[in-house]
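// run 5 | inverse folding | seed 20
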C-alpha cells in the first residue's frame, strides 16, 4: 500500500474511532462509581488495560476469521446495519452498566462491557484496513487514546462537529463495500470494487436517513 493509501486508511480509522468509540469510555466511570476514590483510579488503570488487550485479541480473531468462506460478505452486511444505526440514532446509544462494590467486579464489568460494545468499532477498523494485520494494530493503537481520554472530550467534539457521526457512517459504508467486493468466495470482478464501495456508502446514507425519520415519528 502506498503512502497516500495508508494516509487514507488512517483518516478512516480516526473518523471511525470518533464516531464509534466515544461511548465505550463511559463504561469505566459507570462501573467504578460505587467504589472509593482510590480504588476508582485503579479500576480505570486495570479496566482500560484489560479492555485494550481484549480489543487486540478481538481484532486478531476477526482478521483470522475473514478467511472463512463468505464471512467478509456477512461482516459487510453487519457493517451496513451499524452505519445506518449510527445515523439513525445520531451517534447516541443507551448504556446500562451497573456500578460494582468490589474492585475486581468493577474491572470485570469494564472489560466485558467494552468487548461487547467494541465489536462494531473493531469490525469497522478491520474492514477499513482490509485485514492488514499491521494496519489493524496501528488502528487499535489509535483507539487507545480515545478510551483513555474519555467520552467527555469525544462527546463534546461530536456535539460541536456533528458531521463526524455522518462521516464515520459513510466510511463504514465504504468499508462494507470493500469487504463484500474483496470476498474471494464471491469471486466478483475487480471492476466491481469501486461501484460497490460507492453503492454501499449511498445505501448507508439513505438507510440512516430513513431510520432517523422513522425514529423521530
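// decoded
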Amino acid at each position: 500500500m502506498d503512502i497516500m493509501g495508508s494516509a487514507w486508511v488512517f483518516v478512516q480509522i480516526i473518523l471511525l474511532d470518533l464516531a464509534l468509540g466515544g461511548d465505550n469510555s463511559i463504561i469505566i466511570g459507570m462501573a467504578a462509581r460505587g467504589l472509593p476514590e482510590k480504588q476508582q483510579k485503579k479500576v480505570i488503570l486495570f479496566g482500560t488495560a484489560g479492555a485494550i488487550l481484549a480489543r487486540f485479541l478481538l481484532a486478531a480473531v476477526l482478521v483470522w476469521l475473514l478467511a472463512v468462506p463468505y464471512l467478509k460478505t456477512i461482516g459487510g452486511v453487519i457493517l451496513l446495519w451499524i452505519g445506518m444505526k449510527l445515523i439513525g440514532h445520531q451517534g447516541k446509544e443507551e448504556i446500562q452498566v451497573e456500578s460494582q462494590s468490589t474492585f475486581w467486579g468493577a474491572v470485570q464489568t469494564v472489560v466485558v462491557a467494552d468487548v461487547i460494545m467494541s465489536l462494531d468499532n473493531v469490525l469497522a477498523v478491520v474492514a477499513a484496513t482490509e485485514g492488514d494485520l499491521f494496519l489493524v494494530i496501528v488502528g487499535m493503537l489509535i483507539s487507545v487514546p480515545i478510551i483513555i481520554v474519555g467520552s467527555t472530550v469525544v462527546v463534546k467534539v461530536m456535539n460541536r462537529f456533528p458531521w463526524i457521526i455522518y462521516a464515520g457512517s459513510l466510511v463504514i459504508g465504504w468499508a462494507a463495500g470493500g469487504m463484500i467486493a474483496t470476498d474471494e468466495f464471491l469471486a466478483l470482478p475487480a471492476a466491481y470494487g469501486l461501484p460497490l464501495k460507492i453503492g454501499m456508502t449511498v445505501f448507508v446514507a439513505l438507510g440512516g436517513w430513513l431510520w432517523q425519520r422513522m425514529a423521530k415519528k
